[in-house]
């Protein structure tokens, strides 16, 4: 498999980590990335193309294919598409963050996700450890704004929520800190694209 190497960030920079299956990547991912970069005062964003979501039973399309598609879809001078979890050998986000904080002790990381992931966040390995170690930026997603706001993570960490109007402070905030931004939404999902047969069909052997 092609190796992409480890991404670059200068000491003191704020890097948003946007993890996903990207099976396939789409304009919703691009939208979240650009909105988050602007909203939270991020210097860069790294996409973390996951070898496999620990909570999903169905394995994704091969890593090389998702990486190539992600690089095609997401082109921006301050955004890097990475396979860093393949390098660190981690699957759970808590473990990936520990590895990245060791590799980049002078970089400030912010975890980014769509509202649907906040609704499920309490099911992730050591989710409180994640909240306690990095600021978390959440971007609205069609259909998930209410479930995200009512989620267990949102309730348990209610007092650490940064108001949307102060969103630009998130990048340099001390964890725990999280912020939900109610930006215009893009209604697209990988499931929908797979259902239309526009992605899976191409990975089947001839
Ligand atoms: N349209 C969107 N709006 C906001 N966030 C999104 C959107 N699409 C994906 N995300 C976020 O991007 C991250 C990666 O998502 P993922 O790669 O699973 O895409 P997906 O479209 O949710 O895929 P699937 O339909 O297979 O679950 C998650 O944090 C998810 O919440
Ligand atoms: O750490 C966990 O337990 C965990 C559980 C579910 C999802 N995640 C991460 O959440 C990100 C989004 O996953 P997905 O499949 O919804 O695109 C991706 O980086 C996953 O590794 C992490």
TrEMBL record:
> Could you tell me what reaction this enzyme catalyses?
nicotinate beta-D-ribonucleotide + ATP + H(+) = deamido-NAD(+) + diphosphate
Q: Which GO terms describe its molecular function?
A: ATP binding; nicotinate-nucleotide adenylyltransferase activity
Provide one Gene Ontology biological process annotation.
NAD+ biosynthetic process
The UniProt entry, under InterPro entries, shows: Cyt_trans-like, NadD/NMNAT, Rossmann-like_a/b/a_fold
Which key words are in the record?
Answer: ATP-binding, NAD, Nucleotide-binding, Nucleotidyltransferase, Pyridine nucleotide biosynthesis, Transferase
Under Enzyme Commission nomenclature, its number is: 2.7.7.18
- Judging by the UniProt lineage, the source's domain of life is Bacteria
- CDD domains according to UniProt: NMNAT
Family matches, as Gene3D superfamilies: HUPs (3.40.50.620)
First-tier enzyme category under EC: transferase
**Cytidyltransferase-like domain boundaries:** 17-196
Give the pathway: Cofactor biosynthesis; NAD(+) biosynthesis; deamido-NAD(+) from nicotinate D-ribonucleotide: step 1/1
In the record, the note on similarity to other proteins reads: Belongs to the NadD family.
Q: What is this protein's function per UniProt?
A: Catalyzes the reversible adenylation of nicotinate mononucleotide (NaMN) to nicotinic acid adenine dinucleotide (NaAD).
Q: Which HAMAP family match?
A: NaMN_adenylyltr (MF_00244)
Identify this protein by name.
Probable nicotinate-nucleotide adenylyltransferase
Species for this entry: Ruegeria atlantica
Gene name? nadD
